[in-house]
Amino acid sequence: SAVISQKPSRDICQRGTSLTIQCQVDSQVTMMFWYRQQPGQSLTLIATANQGSEATYESGFVIDKFPISRPNLTFSTLTVSNMSPEDSSIYLCSAMTGSYEQYFGPGTRLTVT
Amino acid sequence: QKEVEQDPGPLSVPEGAIVSLNCTYSNSAFQYFMWYRQYSRKGPELLMYTYSSGNKEDGRFTAQVDKSSKYISLFIRDSQPSDSATYLCAMKLGQAGTALIFGKGTTLSVSS
């Protein structure tokens, strides 16, 4: 298994600003992902964080809005840029060990005013 | 049609009841099937996973996959108030490195 921590756990931000969310895993993992969870909705995959190369984004998500870094096998960051109230959501970091077991962090609850 | 459909509930049962949670999916290429439990204001916790078709049992929990019907189930026996949470089904393709696709989650409340 993997234990995942995220910082910050919550934040309230003003429209037009940016927030960087950090994700730390307690062991080296093969894959890291970022998801968004909105009330009453499924977890939606934003992107796969690739170690040493650009992230792979899902349809509807772009690098300029959600830049992602993954400098090593245990750490990743997600930045939510130029925020609007529509970005208010829970952002979840996830890590995959092996080929199928996927674990989640506690989430970052973001409110944009 | 969404790839993964899950009735959001809410589902309310008395303590000790047998709970059945279900998901349907449209992509026949899905190979791995997971159930996650999410308590309020927490991240999803991996509960069970199954590869391809069949049943898997772990204590009070049983996961079933019927690939011919594109239907998966999670049964909880002797439900407890501590089982009150949102249960999310998730599935993925067989290729390494592909991410999970989630249902919306079913909110379960078990009353004592």
Overall description:
The complex is a heterodimer of chains A (113) and B (112). Chain A is mostly beta strands and 113 residues long. Chain A has no helices and 11 strands. In chain A, strands 2, 4, 5, 6, 9, 10 and 11 form a 7-stranded mixed β-sheet that branches. In chain A, strands 1-3-8-7 form a 4-stranded antiparallel β-sheet, with no helix packed on it. In chain A, strand 9 and strand 10 form a beta hairpin. The mean pLDDT of chain A is 93. By secondary structure, chain B is mainly beta. In chain B, 0% of the residues lie in helices and 57% in strands. Chain B contains no helices and 11 strands. In chain B, strands 2, 4, 5, 9, 10 and 11 form a 6-stranded mixed β-sheet that branches. In chain B, strands 1-3-8-7-6 form a 5-stranded antiparallel β-sheet, with no helix packed on it. In chain B, a hairpin with a 4-residue loop joins strand 7 and strand 8. Chain B is globular. In chain B, 34% of the residues are buried. The model of chain B has no long low-confidence stretch (mean pLDDT 92).
